[in-house]
Design brief:
6-stranded parallel beta sheet, two-stranded antiparallel ribbon, about 25% strand, alpha/beta
Chain lengths: ~180, ~180
C-alpha cells in the first residue's frame, strides 16, 4: 500500500470513443500501475471499461473504474468535500516548482488529464495547473511522471491484492508466475 | 543541452499504421520533450512522420525523425559501432536496480519501445531489458519515466533551438510567446 495518507484518483475528460480508446486505456493502466486508487472517465466507453477491469482482474487491485461521470459536477463536489484538484497541462507551473507543496498537503487528490482541448473552467477550478515540462508531449507521460514523483516511486515497489499473475523481473526473456 | 556525454535515440518497433498512429506519435513527442536526440520508426508512416516534424518546426530541436528503418539491422549495427541497446519491457529488470549502471556507461544508447509483441531476438540482443515496475501499463509512460531518470530530469529544464513558440508557465490559463 502507498504510504501517502490521501486518496489519489484520475479524471479523464474529453474522451472521444472514435479516437481515444487506446490512449485512454493507457491513461487508466498508468493510473493503476503508478498508485492511483481509481479512474473516472467522462464518456461511457464500455470497451475501455472492459479493458481496464480485465487488467485489474488478472493483475490485481484495488483499483476502481467508473465511466460516464459528469466531470464538472465531479470536480465541484470533490472540492466541496475538501479534496484538491490538479490539472496536468503543458501550460501549467512546472512540476519541480510545485510538487513539494502538493505532496505535503494531506487533501485527497483528483488529477485531471484531458483528451481534446480542455475547457477554461477546469483551469480556473483546479487548485494546481501543473506541467511536466512546458513542451507538447503526452498526457500518458505526464500522468506517469507526476504519479511517480507524488508517490516517491511507488511503481517500483508496487503491491497488488488478488492478482492472478505476477512478473518475475528478468534480464532476458519473460517469467510470469500464476498465483 | 543535456549534460550526458552520449547520444540517446529511440527505436519504435512493430508500428501498425492502422492502429498505432497516435500512440507512436506520443512516443515520438515524449522522446523529444524528455531529451532524446531522435526517433527511428520501423514502418514508413508518413502521417506520424509529418506530425512529429511539424512539432519540431514549431517548438524547436534538434530532434531527428526517420521512418521505414530495418530495426534488426539497426540494432545489430548500433552494437557493432559500440553503442548499447536498452529494451523497455514489463518483463525486464526493475529500473532502480539498473539505472545507475546504465547512466554511468558512456556508450551511446538506443532505447527500444515495442508496439505489438516484441520478437524474442530483441530480448537477446538488448544489453538491458528494463521494466518501469513489472505491471502492464504503457510504453509511452515507460519511455517518459526512463528518460526522466536517465537525464536527471532534463525535461524540467529543457532548451530547444529555433523554436517558434514557447510556453510561459502559468498558474491559470495559457501563455504562449511567439519567438
Amino acid at each position: 500500500m502507498r504510504k501517502q495518507p490521501y486518496k489519489i484518483y484520475v479524471l479523464r475528460i474529453g474522451h472521444r470513443p472514435e479516437r481515444d480508446k487506446r490512449v485512454t486505456t493507457h491513461v487508466g493502466l498508468v493510473a493503476r500501475a503508478f498508485g492511483a486508487d481509481g479512474i473516472f472517465i467522462d464518456y461511457a466507453d464500455n470497451h475501455v471499461f472492459n479493458s481496464l477491469v480485465k487488467i485489474v482482474n488478472l493483475w490485481g487491485g484495488p483499483f476502481t473504474v467508473e465511466v460516464g461521470v459528469n466531470p464538472l459536477k465531479m470536480v465541484r463536489e470533490w472540492k466541496e468535500h475538501g479534496g484538491e484538484v490538479i490539472h496536468l497541462t503543458m501550460y501549467g507551473l512546472n512540476l519541480p516548482d510545485v510538487i513539494n507543496e502538493i505532496k505535503n498537503s494531506s487533501k485527497d487528490k483528483l488529477i485531471i488529464v484531458g483528451a481534446k482541448k480542455v475547457p477554461k473552467i477546469y483551469y480556473l477550478l483546479a487548485d494546481w495547473n501543473v506541467a511536466i515540462g512546458n513542451q507538447p508531449h503526452s498526457e500518458i507521460a505526464a500522468l506517469a511522471v507526476f504519479l511517480e514523483k507524488l508517490t516517491d516511486g511507488w511503481v517500483f515497489n508496487s503491491v497488488f491484492n488478488n492478482a492472478k499473475l505476477k512478473v518475475i523481473p528478468s534480464a532476458r526473456g519473460k517469467k510470469i508466475v500464476k498465483l
